[in-house]
Amino acid sequence: MANLARKWIILSVEYILVLALLPSYTDAKRTKEKIYIDLQTQNACFRSLNATHQIGCTSSSEGNVGVLHYLETQDDYSWILKDGPNPPYVVLMNSLEFNSSYLDILVASQRVNGILVINVLENQTLTPFPGQFSADKSCPNDAYGMYHKDKDYSNCRKQQWNVGGTDIGMMFKDYSIPMFSLPNEDDVTKLISTCYERFNRPINGTPRNYPLCAVQLNDRMDAAKDSVTCTRRTNRITNLSNPVRYCDPLGDKNIVATMKTVNSTEQRLNKSVIVFATKMDSLAMFHNEYPASDSTVTGIVTVLAVAEALGATRQEIQDMPTAKDIMFTLFQGESFDYIGSSRMVYDMDSNSTQFPQEISEKVVSLQEIRLDDIHSFVEVSQVGLRDQGKLWIHTDPITRPKLQDPTQLSDMIQSLKSIGSRLDVDLANVTEDTPLPPASVQRFLMKANIPAIVLTDHEKQFTNKYYNSRFDLPSKINVSDHGNQSDPSDDTQTQSLTDLATTLAQFLYKLSTGKDAPSTLKANKDTVESLLQCFLYNQHCELFRRSIDPDDAESLEKAKKPFPFYVSVNLNTNQVTTLTHHILAQYLGEKVNTSKDSCKAPDNDKTHQFLWIQGNLKPNATDNSRVGACIKSTTMLTTAKSPAFDIDGYDWLSGTYSTWTESVWEPLKVRIFLVPSQQFQTTTLSLGVVIMLVSFVIVYFINEQSDILFTHPTSNRYYTY
Ligand SMILES: *[C@@H]1O[C@H](CO)[C@@H](O)[C@H](O)[C@H]1NC(C)=O
Ligand SMILES: *[C@@H]1O[C@H](CO)[C@@H](O)[C@H](O)[C@H]1NC(C)=O
Description:
The chain contains 18 helices and 22 strands. The protein is an alpha/beta fold.
C-alpha cells in the first residue's frame, strides 16, 4: 500500500506544479486544439519498384511536417526556395504548374517537405487544365517493346508518341517527399482559408507571427531500393505466423474468349486463330485517379461492342470447319512494361507452361493455343480522338517483309478500309516506315512473324494529350454524364465508336470466314452508350449490376469513382477485369436455364465456363431483388503476372520481363494543425525539465522519509510501479 500512496502523492505534486505553471501557455494550446483537421484525401503518390530502381513517393515514418505555403505567383516560388524564414514548407500548388520542371526544382531545394496538388475537376477555376500532361514517358514501354536496341526505331527515334510525357516520365522518378492530390473541394478550402490565409500568408512580403499553420503528410512506404531487395525480404522465412510483406508484384488477370469451342480431342490447326485485342489498364501519378478515357476505355468499349455483334454469328462460325477462330483478348498490366501480353506470349511459347492455363477451380481449359496457331492480330488502341477525322492503321516495318504470305497483311488492310468506307468510317494507313506505337502485339512480334495491325486515333504523335494521366477524362473524349437521360443530345462519340465496332465486326467476320459479312451484322449503339456511361461515370449502372456475381454486389456499391484502371498488385482480381469478363461472357455465351447451385460445368465439358450473375430485376419486385442467371461461355481469366516472378533463377537485370512491384504502405493521412512559436516550444521543453527535476527531489525525499510518512501493516502483495 505504501508504494501506491507514494505514487499518488508524487502525481498530485506534479499535477499542482503543472497547473501552477501552465496558464500562460493555454492560449496557444487552446488554438491548437481547435485546429487539428484531418483531410479526406487518400490520393497519394506511392512507391513502386523494379529490378533496379524505386520510384514514387514516401514520407518518414512519423509523417512529414511543414508550414503550409500556397504557390499562387512567382513570388511564392522565391519565398519557398529562398526567402521564407520558416522552412521546411509543405506547398499547395495548382495543376498547371505541377509538372516535371517545377517538381524537380521544389524537391531539389530541400526546403519542401511535402506537396499537395489541387485536382478538383468539377471546378475549373481551381483546376484549370494544362494543354498537355502525361505522367508517363514520352516513349512509353520502349525498353520492353520490340524496338528496344533497334538502330532505326529504338527510343522513338522515328516518332515521339507521347508528347505530354517526359523523357524519364514524371511518375518514374524517385521523390524523397510525400505528395497527395486533392480531388475534394472541402479539403482545398480548409487548406486555403482555414489554414493558409488565416495564419501563414505573408502580409506585404512580411512573414506572419506564430502560431503558424502546418500540414503533416503520412505516406510511409515499407519497401525500399528495388524489387529484388523487397521480394527477398518479403520471402525471408520467419518464425512468425504472419510473415511481413514489403512489396507485391503488380499483376492481375487477362481475359480471353474464343468464338469456337475446340474439344479436347481435337487439335488447333496452325494459323487458325485471329487475336482481337486491347488493354484494360492505365497509370497515373496519384492513387485512385486513373480515368483512362481515351488511353483505355475507348478500346475496351469497342472490343465489347464487337463481341456482342459477333456473338450473334457464333453458331455459324462454329459450324464452319474452315472458319478461323477469333480470340477476344483483354490484357492487364500493359502500362508497366507489358505484364499481361508478355505473360501470354511466355505461356504460349514455353514447353513448361500452357496457354490457356487454369488459374482457379472455376475455370476449365480451352484447347491449347500456341504462337504458331495465331493467324493474325488485330489490336484496338486509343480510338476516341481521331486525327483529321480518321482512324489510323499501324503495322510493323521489321516483321512485314518476313511474313510467310506477303499479301496477307495488305489484303487485311484493304478489306478493313473498304468495309470502313461503306460504313462512313474513314480509315487510313500510316507510312510504311513508321514503327508501331506502344502496343501489346509488340510482345508477340518479338517472338513470331504474325500479320498484325494496330488501330489508333493518331497518325503520328498521340492525339490524346493526357495519355496515362489524371486528366484523361471523359469530357476530353466528349462523353458527358447522361445520368438517367435515355436520349442524350451529344452522342457523337457513341455513334463513332458504334460505327467502328460495326466495321471491325464485319472485318473480323470476313477474315474468319472468307465471306462478306451480312449487312445485318451491326454493333448496338445502346450497348456502346451504356458501356461508356458505366466505365466513365456510373459504376452503379444497370449493365454492371446485372453482370456482377451476387456475392460481389456489395463491392460494386463501394466502387471508387472514377473507376480505377490501375493494374494494382497481383493479390485479387480487379473489379474492371471481373466486370469486363462477365459482360464479355454474356455477349459471346448463352444463358442456361438453371439454378445457382447447378450453374457449373458438367464433368464431361472441358471447354465452357459457367458463371452465375445477378441478372435482371425481378418483375414487380419492390426490393430490387434480381432473378439471377447462369451464363455458359468460353470466356476465361488467365494469368497476368510477369514471368519474372515465376521463373526459377530469373536474371533480374536481363530486361526481358517486367519486374514492377508496389510497396506496402502504412495508413495514409493528411492533417492540418497549428505550430506554436519556437519560444513556446522551448519553454514547454524547459518546463518539462523543471518538473522532472522537482519530481526527482520529491521522490528522493519521500523514499528517504517513507517509514515516517507511511506506517503500514505488513503486506505480502506486490505492485509494480
Ligand atoms: C527501372 O525503372 C527505371 C525508371 O523508369 C529505369 O530507368 C530502369 O531502367 C528500370 N530498370 C529495369 C530493370 O527495367
Ligand atoms: C426454366 O426452368 C423452369 C424450371 O425448370 C421452367 O419452369 C421454365 O419454364 C424454364 N424457362 C425457360 C425459358 O425455359
